[in-house]
Design a protein that fits this description.
Number of domains: 1
Largest sheet: 7 strands, parallel
Number of strands: 7
Structural class: alpha/beta
Radius of gyration: 18 Å
CATH superfamily: NAD(P)-binding Rossmann-like Domain
Shape: globular
Order of helices and strands: EHEHEHEHEHEHHHE
Helix content: 40-55%
Number of helices: 8
CATH topology: Rossmann fold
Strand order of the largest sheet: 3-2-1-4-5-6-7
Length: 258
Amino acid sequence: MDLGIKGLRVLVTAGANGIGREVARAFAEEGAKVHVCDVDREAINELARTDPGIWSSPCDVSNRAEVKALFDTAIDRLGGLDVLVNNAGIAGPTGRVEEINPEDWDRCIDICLTSQFNCARLAVPHLKQSDNASIINLASVAGRFGFALRTPYSAAKWGVIGFTKSLAVELGEFGIRANAILPGLVEGDRIRRVLEAKAQSRGVAFREIEQQAVANTSLKTFVTARQLADQMLFLASPKGRTISGQAISIDGDMQMLT
């Protein structure tokens, strides 16, 4: 299917690793012009080697000065902006709320939520010049379920959904769409680290936690980063032109987080 996004100008945060890298590659495969940022300079260097057609630059999206520099570079290279993918996030601390270090709480909120504001505020003036503009924010199923021992992460992701819905209402008159993607259990090192931390916190075997997590989905499976990217491609394409203000779960029909 031709999605009609050849030449689309796309910025993906945290795009040199994991989900972000898969999203960047998916857009590039469809002929979009893609710029990514990442805090991991080694990953940026590796992406430049493996995917020379994708532009990249280092940036900590919780740092507003670095975000400003990112946008100056990306807009110059892309020649404008049609799509912002706010992908950056961290797992945050695992533990009971009374045990969580306040600095760890702040860092999780800064990267998972406030960074999306940092990028959106600079993206909007450019998106207003586009005839196919959209913002895609990465939330999580933790943004619709309570998540014991992961309160900073869950609070941030609930915030992302509220931020996304508000953007959709505010920016609709300019033809800018805003949607949130809610991944469930995504295959890869990140979810393994999360589950390992939970197993350690509860004093049980990793395999037990893994089986319990998958058992809470109707399809009894993990999802892949490419499945998330496929949904984003559709949302950013003209075929998704009337989809806005949505929190779209890609999670195998997860029923709860435990």
